[in-house]
Amino acid sequence: MNVSNPAGFWVRLGAGILDSIILFVVLGFISFIVYGQFFIDSFSFIDTFSLLYYLLLPIFWYGYTLGKRALGIRIVRVDGEKVGIGTMLLRELVGGFVYAITLGITVIVSAFMVGLREDKRLFMT
């Protein structure tokens, strides 16, 4: 099974924004119940929950997060198969680390790659 219709930049951005809004509201209310504040600056279980959302939900829900499901896109491996824990760890933790150490420059490069490449992928295989 090969990926036949890769998602472009705008639909990916929309799904990311939608996921962020959903997490902000849900975790804000949980934070308000637990800490008495809608938003807290320190690292907490709320941050851990957010990481687990992006890491584990696509594994158990066939590549979907809530935002991706709403916009009809999903995360798949290059061969079209379901993602596993290794794929998601590379995607979220290693990708986030690379974005952080390059001070966001690779975020811009990634956006151009998704927007301009015909296969909409970030890296060549």
Word description of this protein:
The protein has one domain. The two termini are 16 Å apart. Helices cover 62% and strands 0% of the residues. It is mainly alpha-helical. The model has no long low-confidence stretch (mean pLDDT 87).
* Cα Rg: 16 Å
Cα distance spanning the termini: 16 Å
- How many domains in all? 1
Give the mean pLDDT.
Answer: 87
* Total number of strands: 0
Percent in strands: under 5%
Residue ranges: pLDDT <50 for 5 or more in a row?
A: none
Element order: H for helix, E for strand: HHHHH
Which secondary structure elements does this structure contain, and how are they paired or packed?
Elements: H1 9-35, H2 45-60, H3 66-71, H4 85-101, H5 105-116
Provide a compact summary of the structure:
The protein has 125 residues and is an all-alpha fold. The chain is built from five helices and no strands.
